[in-house]
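Cross-posted from the bioinformatics board.
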Amino acid sequence: MADFEIKDLRASVEGRQILKGVSLDVSKGEVHAVMGPNGSGKSTLSHTLMGHPGYTVDGGSVLFKGQNVLELEPDERARLGMFLAFQYPVVVPGISMTNFLRTALNSKRGYDGKDKSKQVTPKEFRSMLKDELEVLHMDDSFLPRYINDGFSGGEKKRAEILQMAMLRPEIAILDETDSGLDIDSIKFVADAVNRMRGPELGILIITHYTRILEFIKPDFVHVLVDGKFVLSGGSEVADRLEKTGYSEWGKEETAQPQEVA
Amino acid sequence: MVSTEAPLEDLIFRGEPDWLRENRRSALESYQRLPAPSKTDEEWRRTDVSRLDPSAFSRFEKAPAHTTMATNLPKGVILESLPVAARDYAELVQPRLFSLAQAHRDRFTALQAALFTGGIFLYVPDGVEIDEPITGRHFSHESGTTVQPHTLIVAGKNSKFNYLDEYIAEHDDEAGYRSGSTEIFLGEGSQVGYVAVQKWGRNVWHFSDQRAELGKDATLRLFNVTLGGKFSKTRVEASLAGEGSNAELKAIYFASGEQFFDFHTLQEHRVGNTRSDLLFKGALQDVSRTVYAGLIRIEKHAARSDAYQANRNLVLSDKAKATSIPMLEIDNNDVRCTHGATVGPVDPEHLFYLRSRGITEATAKRMLIQGFFGDVLDRIPFEHARKLVEAELESRIG
Amino acid sequence: MATVPKVEVGTDYKEKYGFFVPEEYVFKAKRGLNPEIVKEISWMKQEPEWMTNMRLRSLEIFRKKPMPKWGADLSVIDFENIFYYLKASDKQSKTWEELPPDIKATYDRLGVPEAERKFLAGVSAQYESEVVYHSLQEDLTKKGVIFTDTDSALRDHPELFKEYFGTVIPPADNKFSALNTAVWSGGSFIYVPKGVRVDIPLQAYFRINAENMGQFERTLIICDEGSFVHYIEGCTAPIYTTDSLHSAVVEIIVKKNARCRYTTIQNWSTNVFNLVTKRAMAYADATMEWVDGNLGSQITMKYPSVYLMEPGAKGDVLSVAFAGKGQHQDAGGKMIHVAPNTTSTITSKSISKGGGRTSYRGHIKIYPGANNCKSFVKCDALLLDDESRSDTYPYNDVDAENVTLGHEATVSKVSDEQLFYLMSRGIPRGEAETMIVNGFIEPFTKELPLEYAVELNRLIQLEMEGSVG
C-alpha cells in the first residue's frame, strides 16, 4: 500500500468538471512528476489536494495516514504532513515572514497557546531558521518583511521552499515551481529540493515543462490531458515529451519553454 | 442637561474668571439655539442622534484629570488643570480656548464649550524638548453622568514633546454622556506627538473634536484609538497654516457588539509646501457599524502640497457594516493627492494560505486582524503609547 | 439670463464644427412652458391620449420639485425663456440623398456619410428636436432589430413602447426627468430581440442649432435576453451667446444574459447646460456598460447609473470629463446593487484646465440582502494649471453582508519627469503635454471605435492649444 493514494479523483471549478478521474499512488522516497498542457487540470489537482475552497470534489478519495484527506480542512491536511508550494504565492500585508513561520511551526507541533512544552522556543526557532537559510543560501533580510510583499518571482519561490524546509512535510506538491524562473533560480530551487529528498518525503512535481525534471529526476512521470492521466511511466516519458510535446494528444504545445533570447 | 444657570454656577463656573464664565454662558445659548442635527445634513445622514437626550445625564462628575510628570518638568513648562490655567494664565488660554473647536459648530461642540469639566492645559515654551511622554488620564466613575474633559496644548517654537490622553471608564458597562476634545497649537518648527485612547464604557455617547493648527515647519503625529462607547463621533482635523508643515493623522478602531463609530476628518492645506498623510484602519465585529467621511481640501495658493488619505475597513461579521466616504476638493494643480477606501471581509485567499500551513482558522483570523493593524501600529509616535494600544487591541482581538 | 462669453477655439475647430446653418423651421413653438405648450407638442405629434396625459402630469411634477441643492449652480437657467419644441423638417428621410440640403451639409462636415461607409449599421441623426434622417441596414431589419427615432416608435410599436417607457426613470425621479417627460421629442428607440447580437455600433448624432433651444431627447433601449448592442451617441454643437438647455433622459433595459454598451461623446458648445438622466436596469447575468465622455457644455450634471436587479448582473461606468475655462463638469456614476452577487466598477478620468472645474460625484448603494457584492471605484484627476479645480465626492451606502468595496483616487499634474523625457527627444512642450493628456485618457479612448478615438484626440489637442495661444 502506498503512503499517499489518490483514487478516482474528480473535481470541478465553478460548475465545470476539470478532473475526470485521477488515480495516483505516491510513497515516501518517490518523486512523481505530473505533466500536462495548459488547461489539462494540473492546478486543479494541486488545489484540490490541498483543499482550496474554490474547487469542488465530485468524487474519489485521497488516502494519507489512514484518513481520507478530502474530508479535512486545509490546515488539518498540512498538519498531517502535506505541503503545497504555490505557483502564485499571495501577498499578505501586515504579517512578517518570521511571525508566519513561527506560527505555522507551532501549529504543526500542536501548540495551541496552552501547553508550553510543545511550543517552539525562540532559540530553537532561530537555530532552525539559521540552518535552513544557510542550506538555501538565503539571507535573512526578507524575514521582517510582510508575507511575499514586494518579493520578486525568485524570492517568492525561495520563500516557498524555505517554508517547506521548516515544516518538513511527508508529501510535498510543487505546483509549477519552475514557472517564471530563470535557469539559475531553477537550479537553486532544485538543489534545495534534492537535499530534502529521501526516504521520509514523497514529492509530486506538477509542471508543464520538462526543464525542472532535468534537475529533479523523477522516478515516475504521468501525463495529464483533459483531466485524466493518458500515460504513465518512468523518466523516459519526460524524454519523449521533450521531443514531441503534447501533440500525441492533439495539443499543439511543446514541453520545452521558449528560450529567452 | 442642566436647565437653569444657578446650579451651573455652583457646579462648574465657580471660581472661574469672568471671561470664561461669559464664554460658557454664550456657548450654552448656542447649544439651546442650535437645531438638532438633521438627516438631510450630509455629516449626520448616517449618524443617528435622535435618541440622545443630553438632559438625561444631568449629574456631573467632578473629574479632575490625572497627569504624569507634573513635578519633573523642564523650566517654563505649564501643565495644569484647564480651569486653573484659565485663571492663572489667561493670556495664554483665553485667545486659544475653543478657537479651533468652535462652540457654534454644532450642539455638541457648544455643549463641550459650555460645560467642559476638568481638562488639561499644556504649554511648552520655545525651544524646550521633553523626552518622557506626558500623560493625561481622564476618568469616569458612574453611570448616568456627564464627563467632558478638554485638552488644550500649546507648542512653542521648535519645542518637541509627546502627549497621551487616555479616557478611562471605571466600569466597562457605564452609560452616560462623554467627550474628549483636544485643541493643539503647533508653533514654528515644533514637533508634537499626540495620542488619544478612548476607552469609555460600552454604553456611553461620546463626542470628540480633535483639531490642530500647524505653523511653519511644524510636525504633528496624531494617533487616535477608538474602542469605547455605544456611540462615538470623532472629528480629527488638521489645518496646515504654515509652509513646510506636516501632519500625520492615523487612527485605529475596533468595533464590536452594537457599537457605532463615526469619524470625520479634514486635511486643510491652507498654504503651499505642506504635507498630510492620513490612515484610518478599523475592524468590525458582530453588528457594529462605522462611518468614515474624510475631506482633503487644498486651497488655491497651496502649491507643492502632498496629501494622502486612506480608510481601510476589515469587516469580520456578516452583520457588521462599514461606510467610507473619502472626498477631495483640490484647487491647485501643483499637488500630489491620493485617497482610497476599502471595505471588505478577511480575504479568503489569505485565510487559505495560512491554513494550508497548518494554522487553525481561529488563529489565522486573529493573525490576519493583527496583520491588518500591524502597519499602522508602527506609526504610533512613541513607545509608551504603542505598548498601551497593542495591549488594548490584543485583549479585544482575543 | 446670464450671458456667457464667447469661447475662443482654434480656427480649424470653427471651420469643422463651429458653423451656423440658417434657421428654416416648419414649426416653432412659443417660448416658455405651460400646459398649453405641452398639449400643443403632443397634438403636433398626433400622440395617443395616455402620452398627452403623462406629459401633463410630468409638467405638474416638474413645477413642484425643487432645484437640486447640490452639484453645479443652476440658478441661472430661465425656464420661461426656452423653446420647448422645434421640428426641423416635417418628413422622415430614408436615404442620405433625400435629406434637406442644409442639414446634409451639416452632416457632411461631421463626416457622417464616411462613417456610414465604414461601419455604420444605422444612422439616427437628430437635428433640432426631431430625428430627420434614419437608415437601417437590411440585415438588422431581418433580425428583427428596431432602430428608429422615439416619436416613430410610439406610433409604430405602441405596445412595446408603452410597456417600457418611463419604467426605468419615472417622471418623478428628479426635476429634470419630469421636465423631459413633459416636453420630450426625438431620441432613439432600439429593440434587440432575444439572442440577437448587433455586431456593428448603432450611431446617432445630435445637434442643437437655435438660440435658447432646449433639446429634450428621449432614448429607450431594450436588450432582450442574450442579446448585444453598442449604441453611440456623439454630440457637437455650434457656439451661441446665450444659454441653452439640454436635458435628455436615457432608459435602458438589459435582460438576462444580455449586454449593452452605451457610448457618449458630449461636446456641446460651452453655453449649454447639460442635465441628463441616464439609467439602466440590468437583470440576471446581464452587463451594462456606460462609456461617457464629457468635453463640452458650460455645466454638465450627469451620473449614468445601473440598477443591478438580479444575481450576476454587472455594471460598468467609464467616464472622462474635460473642463476648460468657465466649464464645470459634475459627472460620475451610480451603481445600485439590488440583488446579491452583483458587481460594479466605475472608472473616472478628469482633466481641468484654464480655471475649469471637474467634480466626480458617485454613489454606490448596496441594499439589504444584496450580499456578496463587489464594487470598485477609481478616480484619477489631472489638473493642468493652478487656476483649475478638481473635487471627488464618492458616497457609499452598504446595507448588505460580505460586501467588498474599494475606492481609489488620485489628483496630480502632468508629471515633470514624463514631460522632460518627451521634450528631451525634441517634442515641444505643448505637444508633449497633449501626448501625456491623451495617454492619461487612453483607457477611455481605447474603448471607442477608431474614428471616435481619433476625433477625441483631435478635440483634446484643440482644447490644449487653446491654452497655449
